[in-house]
Amino acid sequence: MCDFYFVLYLKKYLTILNLKILHTSKSTLFQKNILLMLKGTFIAQTIGVIGSLIIAKVYGSEAYGIFGLFISISSVLKIINTFQLDKTIVTLQNENESKNLMNSLFVITLFLSLTFIIIYKSLSLIFNLNSINFSILILSILASIIFSFNIIHESFLTFRKKFHPISNAKIYMAFFNIIFQLLLFHKFKLMGLIYGNIISISLISIYYFIKNHNYLSNINFQQLKKSITSNSSVIKYLFPSSLINSLAINLMPILIVAFFSLKETGEYFLSLKILATPLFLISSSISQVYYQKSSEMLHTSKEKLFNFTKKIVLINLALMLLFIIVINTVGIFFLELFFNKNWENLRLFTFILSFLILAKSSFNPISNIIIVLHKNHISLLFNCYLLIVNLMAIYIGYTNSNILQTIIILSLFGSFGYIVLLLYFMNELKKLKNNYG
């Protein structure tokens, strides 16, 4: 219920957002695109949250722990698949170049994923890895291919300013996920969550291919080389930065499985999922549109970018703070009634991780400003810091056989990092305002 009111407040704030740039027709389009993305994301997240709670109750914490492991591995691999060049699809200046990069990344993704499978198969024969590890990794690689395809499609649709298909896809994905995961429970038990997710993202990929089918073409290698050369900083800085960030975020469930238990992994994963719902709602609704708009403003009205970004950050923080207060008081009470205390660490994990999620919400929706301002090296440094924090948290928690210490260190030091990152970029935008205002 709190998610419903959360979105009503977000719509209200976006409607009354008092910015000078809202006097132009382009700004009206910006607001319209955010609300379009918001609608799709809200419906998808409402379905997703309700479905996740039901699925978590049906499958239990161990199955959720395995699913968290699967999501973590595929999330890391999907970064590697595209070298983050999908981000440049949005910023390229002409359609042919953007289209060519999209088609090139499809082939690159398949080639790299096939390489992963060959490497892992060879290692599994040498080290005699057991079947459950092998099956989860192969499924994770398959999912990473489909995830990468979907991200590439979304980037090209963003370039074309076609936000409606992206909005619809979020709704379809949430619906398919719940239906297939529930249907597959009785037959597959622990693996039903994974199989259901793969079927769902595959259907979304088919939907995106239909939407972009007129733009599928042969690869122009000369043009591809030009695109990569002109965006070399993406591969030099953004790719390793994003990879380290993905490792920092997704390494935790993997390491918790390795050093603690599947049950604790499931509790950690569900706590994050509950807290990250509004963060994902805001980020998905704003980040794609903000990326395109801020890139445009950098060339046309640099001096307005600071105030524009500042108001978005303040709105994000206010809404997230409201949600976190509700979820840690009334919300957790109902969650414990629903789960009958089978997830004994849920309340404590949710409270501790709330600080991290609040700090992330201040920067995540505007994180594409890193690319817009060509500050990929800063992102690299920040993500190295996050990775060190994660490793330090796991080491201390494992050494003392206390997962609580791991989560406290992760939350406090992670929060500090996000706050510093936000202040740095707001200062950079303020310099632009002072220089061009």
Would you kindly provide a written description of the structure presented here, covering whatever features stand out?
- This protein is an all-alpha fold and 437 residues long.
- The protein has one domain.
- The protein contains 17 helices and no strands.
- It has helices at residues 2-16, 25-59, 61-82, 86-91, 95-127, 131-159, 163-183, 185-188, 192-211, 221-230, 232-259, 262-300, 302-339, 346-363, 369-372, 376-399, 403-436.
- The longest helix has 39 residues, at 262-300.
- The radius of gyration is 21 Å and the shape is globular.
Explain briefly what this protein structure is:
With 437 residues, the chain is mainly α. Helices cover 87% and strands 0% of the residues.
Listing every helix as H and every strand as E from the N terminus to the C terminus, the arrangement reads HHHHHHHHHHHHHHHHH
Low-confidence stretches: 1-25
Class of secondary structure makeup: mainly alpha
Count of folded domains = 1
Averaged pLDDT, please? 83
**Which oligomeric state applies?**
single chain
**Helical coverage, percent range:** over 70%
Strand tally: 0
Largest sheet: none
- Compute the CA-based radius of gyration: 21 Å
Q: What fraction strand?
A: under 5%
Outline the secondary-structure elements.
Elements: H1 2-16, H2 25-59, H3 61-82, H4 86-91, H5 95-127, H6 131-159, H7 163-183, H8 185-188, H9 192-211, H10 221-230, H11 232-259, H12 262-300, H13 302-339, H14 346-363, H15 369-372, H16 376-399, H17 403-436
Helix pairs in contact: 1-2, 1-13, 2-7, 2-12, 3-5, 3-6, 3-11, 3-12, 5-6, 5-10, 6-9, 7-9, 11-12, 11-16, 12-13, 12-14, 13-14, 13-17, 14-17, 16-17
